[in-house]
Design brief:
binds zinc ion; metal-binding; Microbial ribonuclease fold; single chain; 132 residues; 2 domains; Helix Hairpins; alpha+beta; iron
């Protein structure tokens, strides 16, 4: 199965981000990954550009959101661990990075802690953890 790229993750923004927020982040990231900085940066740069162009337009963002949602629903995530809220210490950026067994990071934010119970998925694989 081919997974579509999560453009919100590319732009390091939540899915609820406003156009202004997306734009700001895009401008910052584009500066960091400017093609002048090497070939690896170039790939990232192209992806950032694609992500921003898709999300800045209301219509294409809507289409994309629907596509992303469909993908999320089809994906079966495997909950393999559970964490107690009181064991979670957010860092100064408001994030607690839980290391997934694939080595990827499962970013837990304050938002997840507001809910009674919440499932957070790894961005690298289909594993997920339960927070309660
Ligand atoms: Zn993982």
């Amino acid at each position: 199965m081919h997974n579509i790229e999560n453009y919100y993750e590319v732009l390091e923004c939540p899915e609820t981000a406003t156009l202004e927020e997306l734009k700001k982040k895009y401008q910052t990231l584009v500066k960091q990954h400017h093609p002048d900085k090497g070939s690896k940066s170039y790939e990232r740069f192209v992806l950032l550009d694609k992500a921003y162009k898709t999300l800045k337009d209301e219509k294409s963002r809507k289409d994309y959101d629907a596509e992303l949602l469909a993908q999320t629903c089809n994906e079966e995530s495997v909950i393999y661990a559970s964490l107690n809220k009181k064991d979670i210490n957010l860092n100064s950026d408001g994030i607690f990075g839980f290391t997934c067994r694939c080595g990827g990071e499962i970013p837990i934010t304050e938002e997840h802690l507001c809910e009674d119970e919440c499932i957070v998925e790894c961005s690298e694989c289909s594993n997920a953890i339960l927070i309660k």
